[in-house]
Design goal:
alpha/beta; D-Maltodextrin-Binding Protein, domain 2; three-stranded parallel β-sheet; 14 helices; 14 strands
């Protein structure tokens, strides 16, 4: 009898109609404004967020903002970018000065809880390391006892260095900066023995900012986990869902071989999953509270996760960072999107 009632309850649950998403105050404000306000990193990070002389922002993190705009408005360019320092970023989000942070912020417990914020995904799996001049003659971070280290204040990097040196019974002299440009300049001008930050930042800084990149090396040690992803305020679940599923849509598109170049042809696919993803079979857009063409718009205008990675930081960029942990799960990486269904 219990099994029968359980089966009946399950059947009833499966038969329930989908409930349309209800907009919250943050999403209402974005729609009323007609523009997404996205917080990026002051000074930029090559490959992740950089601005040109015409004020145009590009990069892997910028693509998340563009994707959210495409999902909401059908137009990836309805975004205002606000550069924020490491110390300003979370306060600015809390105060409503930006709708979304997409600036290589590390997901930690206290940031995700005590600050009243929500991390909604992991755009890039990273870890902290050290860069040194070759002339220093150092081959390992464990040879940095007593070294002066340039690092950004208000970052997890500052805390990780203290933990690492304490655990290895070493000392160091922190040289703290709020502005990344000042930190990089100080390191390349010899004010610090080492420069520390996320590996992605180190490789970007070496390629884009070093007077001669070959004069510097990134040491082999990775001293932390740095899951980097977009951040929103607590309290508007639908807006958080839209940001979260924008990234998942870019991952799902890569997994199914959908790109900005073939997305129109893919509309003719007989694959039920692709038909759901691209809105040929309706329902997913309604569930999220956006147009049924939301994924089509993201991929057509921004591209899949793989396209964004390769264009900005991978083989098609100056950085040439291998996919590594950021490969899809079917390729041995950690990037894994729940199904769009």
């Amino acid at each position: 009898m219990k099994k029968m009632f359980a089966a009946m309850a399950l059947g009833a649950a499966l038969a329930l109609p989908a409930v349309p998403a209800m907009a919250g105050k943050d999403l209402d404000a974005v729609k009323a404004r007609g523009q997404l306000v996205c917080g990026v990193a002051v000074g930029g990070i090559a490959g992740f967020m950089v601005v040109d002389n015409q004020g145009k922002w590009t990069g892997m993190n910028v693509d998340i903002c563009r994707g959210v705009s495409a999902a909401l408005f059908g137009d990836s360019e309805k975004v205002k970018y606000v550069p924020l320092s490491g110390q300003q970023r979370f306060t600015a989000l809390q105060a409503g000065e930006v709708d979304l942070l997409s600036n290589n912020s590390t997901w930690t417990l206290t940031r995700d809880t005590a600050l009243g914020l929500d991390f909604v995904g992991i755009t890039y799996y990273d870890g902290q390391g050290f860069m040194v001049p070759k002339k220093l003659g150092v081959k390992s971070a464990k040879e940095l006892n007593g070294a002066s280290i340039c690092v950004l204040t208000g970052s997890t990097s500052e805390l990780n260095i203290a933990d690492y040196f304490r655990a290895n019974k070493m000392t160091f002299k922190p040289v703290l900066f709020e502005d990344p440009d000042q930190s990089r300049s100080a390191f390349f001008n010899g004010r610090c023995d080492a420069y520390s930050g996320d590996q992605a930042r180190l490789y970007a800084t070496r390629i884009a900012n070093a007077p001669n990149p070959d004069d510097y090396i990134v040491l082999p040690e990775v001293i932390s986990k740095e899951p980097l992803g977009p951040v929103v305020r607590h309290g508007d679940n639908q807006f958080a869902d839209i940001v979260r599923w924008t990234q998942y849509a870019m991952l799902e598109a890569e997994e199914y071989g959908i790109t900005s170049k073939n997305v129109d042809e893919m509309l003719k696919s007989d694959n039920p999953a692709i038909k759901r993803i691209l809105g040929v079979t309706p329902g997913m857009g309604k569930a999220l509270g956006v147009d049924e063409k939301w994924v089509y718009n993201i991929i057509k205008q921004v591209g899949s996760y793989g396209e964004s990675f390769e264009r900005n930081v991978g083989s098609g960029s100056l950085l040439k960072i291998p996919r590594g942990q950021n490969a899809l799960w079917i390729q041995g990486g950690l990037q894994y999107a729940p199904p769009i269904r």
